[in-house]
Specification:
Length: 421
């Protein structure tokens, strides 16, 4: 390389350096630098206050000295004597009653074990465990972002970014944790259509059940331009027929006998599907349904050979026995939904006007529902009448489904008669 080329290369390097230093910052970069400067100022003030107070426990001194960015829980602990919250709340340095410390560690380890290398959003540089704690607090409690902002000493916009980044990360675990059992796993998951006390009895022709199918509605805030006065009330106890269909999400679920979700589908309120997509999926992949098994669903769902629904309208003792047999299984799904809502209070009403984000939050709750069951942590919710899975009239039927339902109801009634004679 001659001298002129060296001079040209050096000149270009100097120009690049000058452009980086003097070029105006983009709005995003400017906001990030301002937030970082504010965080550094607050940190310096808190450390100065700490020096004028009695020495805190040694472990907090070590944390303050070893971390340039003091963790929100430590900041709250070291300044609790000088900062009075506006309302009495759980100490942010300790796990809240609704967020178990073991669950935080378990979910943190689970996220660390994923192949995803995406960095959690949020400029406060929270540790993963604190991000999990913050996000579980928002899911488990009906608290405002302002309240959580005070607990964790973060601005509200940053909490939004952290929370939805956490939801996106958990959503990547859907296929891993909400799984349709196949092969031997599916055989082990089957349970009898008849009552549990008759489980050991051989009933030729009566199928076993893989799961219970149903749906619920999750109220959400309408997008801009679709606001309805009644649908934006924070506590929505009942979705009225005249409400805008997109003021809720349809959450379609299949759960096993233990209440664990095998399938989860989330659509807009205006997208009504009662088993059609599921029927097509089963037709394309017949291995999903082991021989001699079925799904059970309430009236309103598509009746097929694989999805059994109750009889509707007036019927005789044979049909009543069949409906009663299915009703015992519907309680499994009702209880699973009640447990889901009891653990994740935010699902009572999602103050989110963006469909994709609302869907991400609901899917996060469903994935974590299975995580808690795997941990052995069960929250027993009360099945309220308003929350019970919607009961509707007879949905679509196909001839094969009608014939199979009639054959099964005949067998159940014959077995019932033989036991009572």
């Amino acid at each position: 390389m001659d001298v002129s080329e060296c001079v040209l290369s050096a000149g270009r390097a100097v120009l690049d350096l000058v452009e980086r230093e003097w070029q105006p910052l983009s709005p995003g970069e400017l906001e990030q630098r301002l937030d970082q400067a504010v965080e550094e100022i607050l940190e310096a003030e808190l450390i100065a206050k700490l020096n004028t107070q009695p020495p805190p426990p040694t472990i907090y001194v070590q944390l303050l000295q070893s971390h340039a960015n003091v963790q929100p829980q430590v900041l709250q602990t070291t300044t609790s004597s000088s900062i009075q919250p506006e309302e009495e709340e759980p100490h942010p340095g300790e796990p809240m009653e609704t967020v178990d410390g073991a669950a935080v560690k378990y979910i943190t380890d689970l996220l660390q074990s994923t192949k995803s290398r995406a960095r959690m959003a949020g400029r406060a540089r929270l540790s993963l465990s604190h991000t999990v704690l913050l996000s579980l607090t928002l899911l488990s409690e009906r608290v405002s972002y302002r309240s959580v902002s005070r607990r964790f000493h973060l601005e509200k916009g940053n909490i939004h970014r952290i929370f939805f980044s956490f939801c996106e990360r958990v959503n990547t675990l859907e296929e891993r944790l909400i799984r349709w059992p196949v092969g031997r796993e599916a055989e082990e998951a089957l349970f009898p259509l008849c009552s549990p006390e008759k489980e050991q009895e051989e009933q030729q022709g009566v199928p076993r059940v893989l799961g219970v199918l149903g749906h619920i509605r999750i109220p959400i805030r309408l997008p801009i331009g679709k606001h309805d006065v009644e649908s934006t009330v924070p506590e929505v106890k009942r979705m009225k027929k005249e409400a805008h269909p997109d003021s809720w999400l349809n959450l379609q679920l299949i759960c096993d006998r233990k209440g664990s979700f095998l399938h989860c589908s989330i659509t807009k309120g205006s997208d009504v599907d009662r088993g059609g997509a599921l029927r097509d999926k089963i037709k394309q992949h017949p291995e999903l349904m082991p021989s001699g098994c079925c799904l059970v669903a309430r009236a309103g769902y598509l009746l097929t050979a694989q999805i059994l629904t109750p009889y509707s309208g007036s019927h005789g003792p044979r049909e009543e026995l069949f409906n009663k047999t299915l009703e015992e299984h519907f309680h499994i799904l009702d209880q699973a939904v009640a447990n889901l809502r009891a653990r994740f209070q935010r699902l009572r009403y999602l103050d989110i006007g963006t469909y994709d984000r609302a869907r991400a939050v609901v899917l996060t709750a469903c994935v974590l529902h299975n995580v808690y069951l795997d941990m052995g942590q069960v929250v027993q919710g009360d099945v309220e009448k308003e929350e019970a899975i919607t009961r509707e009239g007879e949905g679509e039927v196909d001839d094969e489904g009608v014939h199979r339902r009639d054959a099964i109801s005949d067998l159940l009634f014959k077995n019932f008669d033989s036991e009572n004679t």
